[in-house]
Amino acid sequence: MISGSHSAFLLTSRWHDEGETTLLTYWWQTPRGPVRTVITQPVVCFIPAVAAERAQNAATTLGWPVTVKTVPMRSFDGEAAAACYLPSGLLYRWRDLMREQGVVCREVDIRPTDRYLMERFVYGAAELHGHWRQGAHFADIEGVRITPTRYQPSLRCVSIDIETSFPRNGEPDRLFSIACYQPHESLVLMIGDPDQSNDEVTLVADEPALLRAFLTYIQECDPDVLIGWNVIQFDMDFLRRKYHQHGIAFTLGRDGSELQWRVPANQPDRIYLHIPGRVVMDGIECMRNATYQFESFALNDVAEHFLGDGKLLHGDDRGGDIERLFIDDKPALARYNLKDCELVWRIFEKADLFNFMIERAHMTGLPLDRMGGSVAAFENMYLPRLHRAGYVAPNLGEGYSAEKSPGGYVMDSRPGLFEHVLVLDFKSLYPSIIRSFKVDPMGLVEGLAAYEAGSATKETVVPGYFAAQFHQQRHILPDLIRHLGERRDLAKQQGNRALSQAIKVIMASCYGVLGSDGCRFYDTRLSASITKRSHDIIQQSSRWIAQQGYDVIYGDTDSVFVWLKKSVTNDEADVIGKQLVRDLNVWFKQELQAQWGVESHLEMEYETHYRRFFMPSIRGEETGSKKRYAGLIETAGKAEMVFKGLEAVRTDWTPLARQFQRELYRRVFFAEPYEDWLREQVNALLTGQRDDLLIYRKRLRRPLPLYQKNRPPHARAASLLDAWREQQGLKPRFSDRGGWISYKITINGPEPVEIQRSLVDYGHYLEKQLAPIADAIFQFTGDDFLRIAGQQLDLF
User: Fold this and answer.
1) Architecture field, domain 157-351
2) pLDDT per residue over 640-675, tens digit each?
3) Any bridge partners for residue 609, and if so which?
4) I want to staple 82 with a disulfide (CB 3.0 to 4.6 A). Which of 49, 560, 606, 770 is the partner?
């Protein structure tokens, strides 16, 4: 047994009771290998101190191991608090008992393992002090003491993927193969004749042998992390059902324990896994957490975007192709299976997902496999500071909500074609408002107390909205935002893009958390004091810019679009833009100091110069649209078209419409002829030359049976496809959870592309796809789609 300290990175955590004792189990990655620490720690919740004696008597009468102690803390309503220490298994029974006696329990829902680390400011990494006892596969540290540190782990990862039979009614699912990939080695396990194994594939006799071989590989390879694409909801779910079917323990845990899973009652189509000592990270969820957005998160589409590479099998009958390869060409199936693993690995590296998730853990304490988790991240950072300030956090629903907070400000736009429009953008507007105006849950409590006590002055309190008052000195969130901003600036200087992006996501989520009724700090006085303040700031900025002789033709959340109303060069536009933001920032500093006695952290930046700019009107009206525009910018001497919210970048419009808009608007912006080109496009459509561009791709967000009244076109197409699949003996695709459907509009209505039989309704695409796009901009050029295309239409 060796004593000392060891840097470690958190992999997984869990808690359970042994008798009247709660044990917190953490698994860590260290330079010396995996480590397990087990800590004895009761769970804690809080009640009003006035009920402490009554609560202790109730526990004693029932013989429950609960200890109630008064603590130097109070709730947001000012009541002194007492802490209740007890085993985790009693926690919710204790809460219910207190509720029956009219006593409110707070902070019941905080995970014991999270609380233990956050109260010690341990986020992601820790220094483990204690006695190291090395076992065969991992070490235990006894008498451990945990302190915060920063440690960049070198994680051992394996990318996995399975191939299965195609689901058919009345036929059991079959597992064909499991591929495991690391850059330096790979393995494909597949059912077949073991004597036919070769360098590409290891063949085993049957499914039980395949499942056991996979467990053997994991035990020998001993990865910290398993990655894949939809790996939890498909691969791991399929595997756990197979292990159960064959009566084989799915012992993926580093301590030889079985994989644990749960299916929430309110999310029956979601599965959550826990593997002691190992993390399963899904590529799709990691991409979303890192704020990547794609029209489709299909592996092939994302791989094409990042890598210029793709899967080895394509087409609509990929399931049939896989089954044929399994029968006729197992090495080819092995290559296909392994290629998917390789693509996932390369995407993780190219998108820097490993580092992003590690840095997110360093900043928030969220484990690597925790997807979403904005509320949990906020609480991990906020609660320890709140407790040290002497407060207990409120329960859900205790905040003020009588008035609803508005969203971001979007001003009415001025429609038209413009030359020389500048975009000025506030850098991190909502976080800057939080810092400048001291918006904070605890600061609200302290500010209201000072206001009600008659001690509020401009030096001590900043007024918010819905009668909010925020304390100038006693607050948490403004300082936390400042700290995050400084860390992000340093990360940028050091070229740490993963950390910079992680902090950006965290900072952006602070407003969203405070405005979410799923957060214990939800209070519309907080969210309104951010959004309504942003409305005022954008409106004040617009008035100030107008005083400088320019017109603000649009404003959106944190940006204003400024029409210069004169012809300028790119350099002259840049000079004007930089001067405007310099002067406006100075004005805000003076204004905030004079009116509220606060330092302004608002920072307007000059973002873009549009040489030409188009703001459409709402279809059929003269009013300008919102969040929809196009413009022409120049970067490094190269002209580039930018589309926001228009059909060219909307996935619910066909590729035909998107391509048509991009080229038509480009011609208008560059003053190139477009009438002959437009007629050619119409002719190509009507003669069937654009049929491959007529596909709509939309998502059913609910199971198909829930679309009962006024079924939209994509639901009707999905219904046709599911009916056809049932005729073929295949399982319906949309009956349980919805999904994506691709279809065309035919003379007989919408039909899925897989089974389209009717002729295309070209009139629909002319009227609903091309004409609206053209007439939106022709309104300002004096042209008309029907006039230009009319002669061509007469031919059909």
Assistant:
1) 2-Layer Sandwich (3.30)
2) 999 999 999 898 899 999 999 999 999 999 999 999
3) 422
4) 49
Q: Please give the Cα distance from 702 to 735 (Å, whole number).
A: 9
CATH topology of domain 396-615: Palm domain of DNA polymerase (3.90.1600)
At CA 367, angle to CA 120 and CA 398, rounded to 5?
Answer: 70
Mean pLDDT of 606-610: 96
CA distance 87 to 66: 8
- H runs (alpha helix) in 548-672: 570-596, 655-669
User: How many CA atoms are closer than 13 Å to the CA of 65, on its beta-carbon side?
Assistant: 13
In angstroms, the CA 288 to CA 302 distance is 12
Q: Could you say which of 2.40.50.590, 3.40.50.920, 3.30.479.30, 3.40.225.10 is the CATH number of the domain covering 2-148?
A: 2.40.50.590
> What are the residue ranges of CATH 3.90.1600.10 in the chain?
396-615
Give the Cα separation of 633 and 627 in Å (integer): 18
Residue type, 713: P
Burial track 240-259 (b if 16+ CB lie within 10 A, e otherwise): bebbeeeeeebbbbbeebeb
pLDDT, one tens digit per residue, over 210-219 is: 999 999 999 9
b/e per residue 337-363 (b: at least 16 CB within 10 A):
bbbbbbbbbbbbeebbbbbbbbbbbbb
In three-state form (DSSP H/G/I as H, E/B as E, the rest C), the secondary structure along 84-102 is EEECHHHHHHHHHHHHHCC
Q: Is-contact 528 428, C-beta < 8 A?
A: no
Every domain range in the chain assigned CATH 2.40.50.590: 2-148
- In this structure, of 244-248, 250-254, 555-559, the range with the lowest mean pLDDT score is 555-559
Measured between its terminal Cα atoms, the distance across the chain in Å is 89
Q: How many CB atoms lie within 10 A of CB 236?
A: 24
| Neighbour order of strands in the sheet with 67-74 | 43-48, 80-86, 67-74
Structure tokens at 257: 């324990």
| CATH number of this structure's domain 648-794 | 1.10.132.60
Burial class (CB in 10 A: 0-12, 13-18, 19+), 98: buried
* 555 backbone φψ class: left, alpha, beta (φ>0; ψ -120 to 50): beta
769 vs 654: CA distance, rounded Å: 8
CATH 1.10.132.60 domain extents, the chain:
648-794
- Torsion over CA of 228, 230, 232 and 235, rounded to 10 degrees? -80
- Residue 486: how many other CB atoms lie within 10 Å: 11
pTM for this entry: 0.90
Please report the pLDDT score of residue 269 as a whole number: 74
Determine contact, residues 4/144, Cβ cutoff 8 Å: no
Alpha-helix residue ranges (DSSP H) falling in 101-206: 112-118
Q: Give 791's pLDDT tier (boundaries 50, 70, 90).
A: low
Phi-psi region of 102 (alpha: psi -120 to 50; beta: other; left: phi over 0): left
Residue type, 676: D
pLDDT one-digit tens code per residue, 581-590: 999 999 999 9
Tokens of 6: 């060891």
